[in-house]
Amino acid sequence: MCRRIFSDETSSIGDIPFFKIGSFGKEADAFISKELYLDYRKRFSYPKKGDVLISAAGTVGRTVVFTGEDAYFQDSNIVWIDNDNANVNNDFLFYILKIVKYNTEGGTIQRLYNSILKSTKFNSPKISEQNKIYNFLNLIDDRIQTQNKIIEELKILKSTLAQKLFSQQLRFKGDDGNDFGVWEVKKLGECLDYIQPTKYLVSSTEYDNSYKTPVLTAGKTFILGYTNETNGIFENNLPVIIFDDFTTATQFVDFPFKAKSSAMKILTATKGVYIKFIFEAMQFMNYEIGGHERHWISKFAPIEILVPSIDEQTRIADFLSSIDEKIKTENEILEQYKNQKQYLLYNLFI
Fold it and tell me: Which residues, in sequence order, are CB contacts of 6 under 8 Å at separation 6+?
């Protein structure tokens, strides 16, 4: 492991990234001086290019290949195996460490000690076969990386086009070749009615993925589980927007559901409003939130929004939805690659 770095030797900006256990494998949020880095790298242990760095605390066993960049790593929490590549090359070791079962009692460890690493066993073929296995798995990793890039580019494309559509820099034409007409100023509260969940709240806390009706909650989890409760299922006024009254997060919902949280607002469209258009427009609104206010009533309902004719609303929303469908398809392909990789990882080494 690297030499100990003390907190007063780090800063929020600087020359050399210092990776702690929380930033391991991500962007560094701390830095050390170049002078200290060069001194410690010369006098103390430092990984070689290609060594596999391992998280030894927190989420134990996360792995990152050291690519030789100027960086420093938190002692004892981030370690590496000083491997000479004679019997096991680091490329192969990187994948082994993703599935290895560490030699500990009880199966759960809070810290990866040197003794645990040294006593952990795994099967290893000859170097020539190790290289073939690595090259095969690396091809899948490259495809996963490419797939992530495709998805990110689609998201950027949607965001760019949506901004142009809602600012009217880009407009659809009617069947007669002319613009649809002038956009009207409305308040969100005029476009959307809200329902406070009461009878839609699920009473059971037991969920089973074999049940059909999803239970929605406020917050990041969104789909909490699935229930077999039949009373009070929301299904007659779909689609709707689910609005989290605390975080102001929104979700577009076009399937029957039960509500779990009273912090939710169920937003439905008023006459002359295409709700998917309103949902997309809400993603670009600027606002400030604070405290434990009822944010829909106090912050969102009064916001003014430009609304075109129902035909143009539909064209815009359906166009953006087509990009959403493409993103969904590409995400499904990504999951297939990830599942394929996991299957191979757990079966190639048996």
Answer: none
Which of 247, 270, 243 is closest to 259 using CA atoms? 243
Q: Is residue 174 part of a domain?
A: no
Compute the distance between CA of residue 238 and CA of residue 200 in angstroms, rounded to an integer: 14
Identify the pLDDT of residue 203: 87
- Phi-psi category of residue 251: left, alpha or beta, with phi > 0 → left and psi -120 to 50 → alpha: beta
Q: Write down the pLDDT at residue 179.
A: 79
Report the alpha-carbon distance of residue 320 to residue 276 in Å, rounded. 9
| CA 223-226-230 angle, 5° bins | 120
Chain centroid to Cα 326, Å, comes to 18
- 8 A C-beta contact, residue 73 and residue 53: yes
Domain range for 326 is 125-167+310-350
pLDDT per position as a tens digit, 215-252: 998 877 889 999 998 888 999 899 999 998 888 889 99
Residue 311 has pLDDT above 90, yes or no: yes
Assess contact for 112 and 60: CB atoms under 8 A.
yes
- Residue 141 lies inside a defined structural domain of this protein: yes
- 207 and 298 in a single domain? The answer is yes
Residues 255/259/263/267 CA torsion (nearest 10 deg): 30
